[in-house]
């Protein structure tokens, strides 16, 4: 469900690098040329381009891009040029360093990725930052937020379909009991969200709805200003309905006054090769406007062009 | 520092399987033959033997061994025949299922392994038990023990040598402050043990000793009957001095009245190809008796013979 458009016949990495080199040459930068190349190459192709560039010109393409580009466009191209594990490590490091209780990036990286992808990000974290992700999360976050986030980033969830129905019932009851008492930070409560497989959690949430008449996320909205509850809702949505979660992040990023470029960029680069097509459909269903059009209205210049390229607009 | 003795010219896996088949044939079992083969093959060789056996005879060698052997000898050979990740998953599952506050197996598996080995065990756990290790640990353990164990089994520690000295000082101070207040289950206290790299922890513990005059593990012995403190001491020992930790487990398993075969077996099979030689040296230093002699005195029959084979006694 990738939105990316890759040309039928892709130039060799050497040719791509030569064109990129031209785009950087002389006065000014040819941003259009950069978009026409990087905006239409898959992760494996971008990886080879980076390697080829380093071998051919003795420079790190990422550093050159940072030097040549600016602002939101720079960040977008930089994140896009990273491979997904490095990018997740980078985003997680940023989120841990400037952590605030409203930050959801750590939840996205731990719950809207496969178990192996989360591991790959933790491995990349070691290489990039000479420490572990959980170490930074433990050190930078606090209180109940830490309790939840530390378990989430350390999880390696089982990914099979097997469901223990009697366990799902027991845990649905426990979830309801704790929610009724507003015991949201209880260890027994948190551990269910932090360790169960998606299939098992989904079964518990279904039973919750059948038995108690409401989506669990509705009940987790009892106090809309409670940031911990918001984090729990993000956890369930990232695990069970990531496309709805991300459609909402985009809606909030471009809706209303101003644009939250950080969130918009993150959703587009991290989901373009995963499920951005479905996120777009979900967005349109909810907002009655195609995602591309909404983004085009809210952004401009090369930043807009690159976003639309990643959304699959125009020719490859 | 493996104690294992492998013959100069190792028979082919097909030959080994044929010999094993002979050992199982007819009335009775030729235990000596089994020991002479499996007791002198490395992990990679045992793996090929299992695969070859399944291919040649259409049976799982493990199941045949279970059928043919009994008691402590059966468990020893069974655990030895498993590959290390499966074995750790098996031991961790057993420990979670019949968990008690005095059980240290989960600490061993999470702290006396490399980060990649712990991951491999978590992966094997998915395959064998259709759920995650942390899920079972969260479900089966309780209270403060769960708080610590859940983080330990989920950790993926950084393994580089880099140390942040000023952080080590800050955290040594925090450790001392919490210990002075007996706040052993404080989240800030636990997270240091659960997330820091060995090098970083070691630096903090060294500073602790320099500044406050005592080994941290001495201070963690304030209340010898407190099982949570014992778990914390096991954590630091498994991380920093695993050979001392295991030498002590063996000493307690064979010292005094009776033998704790479960602990003795576990140490020998999990460490034979890692550091059993050093554990033996450590044992002898502390007890003035060679480990082989102490084990021979305390055990008997095929169980004894297989243990001594794994300790490198006799010819391969």
From TrEMBL, chains A, B:
Keywords: Annexin, Calcium, Calcium/phospholipid-binding, Metal-binding, Repeat. GO terms for biological process: response to cold; response to heat; response to salt stress; response to water deprivation. InterPro entries: Annexin (IPR001464), Annexin_repeat (IPR018502), Annexin_repeat_CS (IPR018252), Annexin_sf (IPR037104), AnnexinD_plant (IPR009118). GO terms for molecular function: calcium ion binding; calcium-dependent phospholipid binding; phosphatidylserine binding. Transmembrane segments: none annotated. Ca(2+) 3 binds at residue 298. Ca(2+) 1 binds at residues 24, 26, 28, 68, 254, 258, 296, 299, 304. GO terms for cellular component: cytoplasm; plasma membrane. SMART domains: ANX. Belongs to the annexin family. PANTHER family: ANNEXIN, ANNEXIN D1. This is Annexin. It comes from Phaseolus vulgaris (Kidney bean).
